[in-house]
Amino acid sequence: MIQLSTLKKSGLTLALLLITLISRAQLSGTITVPSVSYPDLATVISALNTTGVSGAVTINLVNGQTAPTGGYLLGSAILNASVSATNTITFNGNGNVITAAAGTIANGTTLATTNGLHDFMFAVSGTDYVTFNGVVFTEPSTNNTPTLAMEVALGFYNLATTSGSADGCQNITVNNCTFNMTKYGQAGAAITALPMTAALTSATWSVMADRHRDFNITNNNFASVYSAFFIRGIAGNTVRNVNFLTNTVTNMGGLGTTANTVTSYGLYPNQVDSLKMNGNTISLANTHVTTAYAAYNGSSLGGYVETKNNTITLQTGTTVSQTSGIYWSSMIGGNFEMTGNTLQFGSCPNITTGIFYGLYATYGGGGTNVRMNLSNNSCVNQTIPGNGTKYIIFSSHGYNLNGASVVLANNSFSGNTLTGSGIVYGIRGGYALAYDSIYNNNI
Question: For residue 213, what are the β-bridge partners?
Fold first, then answer.
């Protein structure tokens, strides 16, 4: 006969065994893909979603992967509850390629301003502390229609839609990745962070955990993209702390003729509080036949905004549409720095009366003692085409508030050649406040 004490001991042993198995089921450490346990990336993502993590996890890709139809989807209630500042998730691509499947959705309305249906290669749903490093995201050349193309390579979404439990993506890094898109998915961008779920349903935000925040987009090569990076919050619930640093965006936008109809953007922050855009090199495509901006803000760009040491090449295939470098309009709240930027002009084979803006900054209110500093920027020895108006530097402080100031100093606009007609403004300022400082500019 089995003694009761034996049964108790057996039960205790079984319970301990189950606890051990459950603990082991959660992932931690370095995982190689492919391996015996994880033959492909989809397998390890499924395991992460199902079991969560018990420590920092690094997924090392040692060969290329092909995304499934509908894309990879990282994020679940289990996983998201297990990540932390120490329990992080890192995808090391080691220069290996993730190839997109064919898309199934066509969308002609930009995701920079409006939630809408779209295809993605890789989605992250509310998971925090995720890093992508050295991954090459590539579309096959056969994704050559608006339906077949990916609107988004790497998208960040809410896990749920309900205010208070929507669960946004926070503490995200995308570093040293490459994006090769076919450019037919014109509504999207290579990287997006949007107030919606990966099931493409709009989310509502009310608490800080609902929001996307703390994004670091650094050292990436946007080699072939229609637009590079969209990040968007909700009125009254802005995205916080976005850093877009030392990225290269080459020949952004543009498929020529009538193939491109949607405005192209390098960076589009919409409802964002605190932004740094520093050290980037961005060139627009000379085959792009509609409006384009190297950087443009939607409503409510505020907090501290820093735009330093970027090199922007303005070129276009348009005849009459606007072509712009860095265009920050009606900023609110805190101080603003736009310094050390270099403007260049490239090929514009069809330009007639299209307008150019190089560096554009206007303040719309919301704070006192606000300082706008547009200094040490240059546009030197360039050939500037077209018969439209050209604004090299445009600034305006919309509110004559106590302590408000605009500084325009040490900018250089010299040695340039104009090939057409039209008015050219080296520096144009608005609202000449008593506190303005304009000095040492070379025009």
Answer: 170, 240
Scan for tokens 């990916």, then name that residue: 150
First-residue to last-residue Cα distance in the chain: 102
The rounded distance, in Å, linking the Cα atoms of 271 and 236 is 8
Residues with Cβ < 8 Å from 129, sequence gap 6 or more?
83, 84, 85, 87, 88, 89, 170, 171
- Per-residue pLDDT of 179-223, as tens digits, reads 999 999 999 999 999 999 999 999 999 999 999 999 999 999 999
46's CB contacts (< 8 A; 6+ apart) are none
Is the pTM for the entire model greater than 0.90? yes
SS (H, E, C) 372-401: EEEECCEEECCEECCCCCEEEEEEEECCCC
Quickly count: other Cβ atoms within 10 Å of residue 199's Cβ. 12
Phi (first) and psi of residue 170, to 5 degrees: -135, 150
Let me know how long the chain is: 443
| For residue 146, cis peptide bond before it (omega within 30 degrees of 0) | no
Query: Distance of CA 369 to CAs 12, 190, 269, 363, 402, Å?
Result: 67, 37, 24, 12, 6
Distance CA 261, CA 241 (A): 31
d(CA 147, CA 284): 24
How far is it, in rounded angstroms, from Cα 81 to Cα 197?
A: 17
pLDDT of 20-42, one tens digit each? 434 458 999 999 999 999 999 99
